[in-house]
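Show me a record, fold above all:
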Amino acid sequence: MNQQPQDRVRSLLEEWADAIRNKDIERLMGCYASDVVAYDMMPPLEWRGAQSYRAAWEQGLAMPGSFEVELYEPVITARDDIAFAVALAHFDVRPPSGEAYDGWFRWTAGFARSNGEWKIVHEHSSVPIEMESRTALIDLRP
Protein backbone atom coordinates (compact mmCIF):
# COMPACT_ATOMS: atom_id res chain seq x y z
CA MET A 1 0.00 0.00 0.00
CA ASN A 2 1.35 3.41 -0.98
CA GLN A 3 0.93 5.86 1.93
CA GLN A 4 -0.02 9.47 1.34
CA PRO A 5 2.58 12.10 2.34
CA GLN A 6 0.57 13.12 5.43
CA ASP A 7 0.46 9.50 6.63
CA ARG A 8 4.20 9.07 6.05
CA VAL A 9 4.94 12.20 8.11
CA ARG A 10 2.59 11.00 10.87
CA SER A 11 4.48 7.68 10.93
CA LEU A 12 7.76 9.56 11.22
CA LEU A 13 6.38 11.55 14.18
CA GLU A 14 5.34 8.32 15.90
CA GLU A 15 8.84 6.93 15.34
CA TRP A 16 10.33 10.17 16.74
CA ALA A 17 8.21 10.05 19.92
CA ASP A 18 8.86 6.33 20.43
CA ALA A 19 12.62 6.82 20.03
CA ILE A 20 12.54 9.55 22.69
CA ARG A 21 10.45 7.40 25.04
CA ASN A 22 12.91 4.52 24.63
CA LYS A 23 15.98 6.78 24.75
CA ASP A 24 17.13 5.32 21.44
CA ILE A 25 19.49 7.95 20.06
CA GLU A 26 20.16 6.08 16.80
CA ARG A 27 16.44 5.79 15.95
CA LEU A 28 15.85 9.37 17.01
CA MET A 29 18.64 10.80 14.88
CA GLY A 30 17.40 8.69 11.97
CA CYS A 31 14.36 10.98 11.94
CA TYR A 32 16.48 14.05 11.13
CA ALA A 33 18.08 15.21 7.90
CA SER A 34 21.86 15.63 8.07
CA ASP A 35 21.45 19.38 7.58
CA VAL A 36 18.64 19.89 10.12
CA VAL A 37 18.31 23.31 11.72
CA ALA A 38 16.76 23.24 15.20
CA TYR A 39 15.62 25.99 17.51
CA ASP A 40 15.24 24.26 20.85
CA MET A 41 14.27 25.65 24.24
CA MET A 42 17.72 24.89 25.62
CA PRO A 43 20.81 26.84 24.58
CA PRO A 44 22.40 27.57 22.22
CA LEU A 45 20.14 29.77 20.13
CA GLU A 46 20.28 27.35 17.20
CA TRP A 47 21.61 23.92 16.29
CA ARG A 48 22.88 23.41 12.74
CA GLY A 49 23.38 19.90 11.44
CA ALA A 50 22.44 16.51 12.81
CA GLN A 51 25.82 15.98 14.52
CA SER A 52 25.41 19.20 16.47
CA TYR A 53 21.80 18.44 17.41
CA ARG A 54 22.74 14.89 18.37
CA ALA A 55 24.89 16.29 21.19
CA ALA A 56 21.84 18.07 22.61
CA TRP A 57 19.70 14.95 22.42
CA GLU A 58 22.42 12.79 23.95
CA GLN A 59 22.53 15.12 26.94
CA GLY A 60 18.73 15.14 27.27
CA LEU A 61 18.31 11.39 26.91
CA ALA A 62 21.10 10.73 29.43
CA MET A 63 18.90 12.07 32.24
CA PRO A 64 18.12 9.24 34.65
CA GLY A 65 14.52 8.05 34.74
CA SER A 66 11.92 8.37 32.04
CA PHE A 67 11.46 11.20 29.58
CA GLU A 68 8.57 11.44 27.14
CA VAL A 69 7.31 13.94 24.62
CA GLU A 70 3.80 13.64 23.25
CA LEU A 71 2.49 15.76 20.40
CA TYR A 72 -1.09 16.77 21.10
CA GLU A 73 -3.24 16.52 17.98
CA PRO A 74 -0.56 17.48 15.46
CA VAL A 75 -1.79 19.27 12.36
CA ILE A 76 0.15 18.07 9.32
CA THR A 77 0.17 19.77 5.94
CA ALA A 78 1.99 17.70 3.33
CA ARG A 79 2.60 17.73 -0.39
CA ASP A 80 4.69 15.40 -2.54
CA ASP A 81 8.14 16.26 -1.13
CA ILE A 82 7.60 18.90 1.58
CA ALA A 83 5.52 19.09 4.74
CA PHE A 84 5.17 20.84 8.04
CA ALA A 85 3.50 19.98 11.32
CA VAL A 86 2.40 22.08 14.27
CA ALA A 87 1.30 20.91 17.70
CA LEU A 88 1.21 21.65 21.34
CA ALA A 89 3.57 19.19 22.95
CA HIS A 90 3.65 17.75 26.45
CA PHE A 91 6.86 16.68 28.15
CA ASP A 92 6.92 14.39 31.16
CA VAL A 93 10.09 13.77 33.18
CA ARG A 94 10.16 11.15 35.93
CA PRO A 95 13.53 10.93 37.65
CA PRO A 96 14.22 7.78 39.69
CA SER A 97 14.48 9.94 42.80
CA GLY A 98 12.97 13.34 43.25
CA GLU A 99 9.77 14.83 42.01
CA ALA A 100 8.39 14.25 38.53
CA TYR A 101 7.68 17.33 36.45
CA ASP A 102 5.95 18.10 33.20
CA GLY A 103 4.92 20.99 31.02
CA TRP A 104 3.63 22.09 27.66
CA PHE A 105 5.40 23.81 24.80
CA ARG A 106 4.79 24.81 21.20
CA TRP A 107 6.34 22.58 18.55
CA THR A 108 6.70 23.10 14.80
CA ALA A 109 8.65 21.02 12.31
CA GLY A 110 9.41 21.11 8.61
CA PHE A 111 9.96 17.91 6.64
CA ALA A 112 11.40 17.06 3.25
CA ARG A 113 11.35 13.85 1.27
CA SER A 114 14.56 12.81 -0.40
CA ASN A 115 15.17 9.47 -2.11
CA GLY A 116 11.75 8.34 -0.90
CA GLU A 117 12.47 9.03 2.78
CA TRP A 118 10.87 11.73 4.93
CA LYS A 119 13.18 13.53 7.36
CA ILE A 120 12.84 16.45 9.75
CA VAL A 121 14.74 19.39 8.24
CA HIS A 122 13.67 22.01 10.76
CA GLU A 123 12.40 21.77 14.32
CA HIS A 124 11.30 24.63 16.57
CA SER A 125 10.25 24.37 20.22
CA SER A 126 9.22 27.34 22.32
CA VAL A 127 7.28 28.44 25.35
CA PRO A 128 5.51 31.74 25.93
CA ILE A 129 7.24 34.18 28.24
CA GLU A 130 5.79 36.69 30.64
CA MET A 131 7.47 39.81 29.27
CA GLU A 132 7.68 41.90 32.43
CA SER A 133 9.46 39.25 34.51
CA ARG A 134 11.06 37.46 31.52
CA THR A 135 9.80 34.16 32.93
CA ALA A 136 9.18 31.11 30.75
CA LEU A 137 5.63 29.85 31.20
CA ILE A 138 5.84 26.06 31.07
CA ASP A 139 2.90 25.55 33.40
CA LEU A 140 0.26 26.73 30.92
CA ARG A 141 -2.21 24.02 29.91
CA PRO A 142 -4.22 23.66 26.70
The beta strands are 32-39, 47-48, 66-78, 82-94, 101-114, 117-126, 129-130, 135-136. The chain has one domain: 5-126. DSSP finds three helices and eight strands in the chain.
